[in-house]
Amino acid sequence: MNHLSKNILRLAFLLAAGTTLSCSHNHAAEEEKHEEHDHEGVIVLDPHQAEKIGLKTETVVKSSFSPAIKVGGKVLAANGNEKTVAATTNGLVTYSGNLYEGNAVRAGQTLFSISSKGVENGDPIEKARLDLANAESELKRAEELVQKQIISQKEFEQIKLRRDLARESLSGMGLKKSGSGMSVAANQSGFIKQILVRPGDYVTVGQPLAIITQNQKLQIRAEVSERHYAFLNQVRSANFRTEASQQTMCLDSIGGRLLSSGKSMPEGTFYVPVIFECNNVGNILPGSFAEIWLLGNEQREALTVPLTALTEEQGVFFVYVQKDKEHYEKREVKTGGQDGVRIEILKGIQPNEKVVTQGAIHVKLASQSGTIPEGHNHNH
């Protein structure tokens, strides 16, 4: 074999060896890539750590779900739970102590003082007392005169009637004297919903000074646009959330009931009112604006999860499915309707899978850290 032939054989051998090594390396790389792909989206969260952050899960099953429409509305004090405190004399009003809206008050507690000093026509309370004193003095004289038959029994009865009327007039004013004038007290226990006067205002007999509410019952007034009018025939209940609260309240769980569903739009508005009544079991202030989900009679079997189970990324929704005690999988889902508490899942999870319902944000943060199951790191 000449020198040229030996060189050709040597080159062919090297090329063959290189090809073998290259194929071997590519195969290993493909295996590593495939194994990494198998664990893509799997997040590790130690059970102890999960308990520490309050992680909770729920097994997803099909259950009854009511379609709902979301509307705006307002929380109101129920009728009969409010009383107005009124002035029973003329004069200048002042607050008794540190008075403000939202104050808890007791029945009989002094709220205002009204002074008639320097006021035209004087103090009506003093005038009523003077009238009573004169009437009692006249009656005392009449008792002597009727015994001596100087006046008739009929005249005596008229004098006695004037005394009784003067006494009732003073008693009916319902005020107690204080250092700064006549005291006006709360007529029921509850909370001050609204103060209608300012210190120094001149008030007259019967003028409203404040409104006290007991907040035992609430009304939830939903304002429904005309495009949802056909839905009103099947409304049975509602869920609601006020601006100041992060918790959605279910009327069914707080003694709620439907009071009325409007059949027409009140003049000057484009909304039909739907009114519910419920117990005030929490710190819900009448007058608060609310988001309201009206629930219909129709129910269907559906896969649902709490709204707290969802996370969102650029308009795409995800849930985290628990695979075992410490492994979780990020799963994209397609959502349907919701009722303010739960949301329907149309695609992405199957019945009997466990979904994170509280603490989903912590699992999301763990997924962003790039954690993969222990034992699946690759060192080459």
Automatic annotation (TrEMBL):
<dbReference type="GO" id="GO:0016020">
    <property type="term" value="C:membrane"/>
</dbReference>
<keyword id="KW-0175">Coiled coil</keyword>
<protein>
    <submittedName>
        <fullName>Efflux RND transporter periplasmic adaptor subunit</fullName>
    </submittedName>
</protein>
<dbReference type="Pfam" id="PF25967">
    <property type="entry name" value="RND-MFP_C"/>
</dbReference>
<feature type="signal peptide">
    <location>
        <begin position="1"/>
        <end position="28"/>
    </location>
</feature>
<dbReference type="InterPro" id="IPR006143">
    <property type="entry name" value="RND_pump_MFP"/>
</dbReference>
<feature type="coiled-coil region">
    <location>
        <begin position="125"/>
        <end position="152"/>
    </location>
</feature>
<comment type="similarity">
    <text>Belongs to the membrane fusion protein (MFP) (TC 8.A.1) family.</text>
</comment>
<dbReference type="GO" id="GO:0030313">
    <property type="term" value="C:cell envelope"/>
</dbReference>
<dbReference type="InterPro" id="IPR058627">
    <property type="entry name" value="MdtA-like_C"/>
</dbReference>
<feature type="domain" description="Multidrug resistance protein MdtA-like C-terminal permuted SH3">
    <location>
        <begin position="302"/>
        <end position="360"/>
    </location>
</feature>
<dbReference type="InterPro" id="IPR051909">
    <property type="entry name" value="MFP_Cation_Efflux"/>
</dbReference>
<dbReference type="GO" id="GO:0060003">
    <property type="term" value="P:copper ion export"/>
</dbReference>
<dbReference type="GO" id="GO:0015679">
    <property type="term" value="P:plasma membrane copper ion transport"/>
</dbReference>
<keyword id="KW-0732">Signal</keyword>
<keyword id="KW-0813">Transport</keyword>
<dbReference type="GO" id="GO:0022857">
    <property type="term" value="F:transmembrane transporter activity"/>
</dbReference>
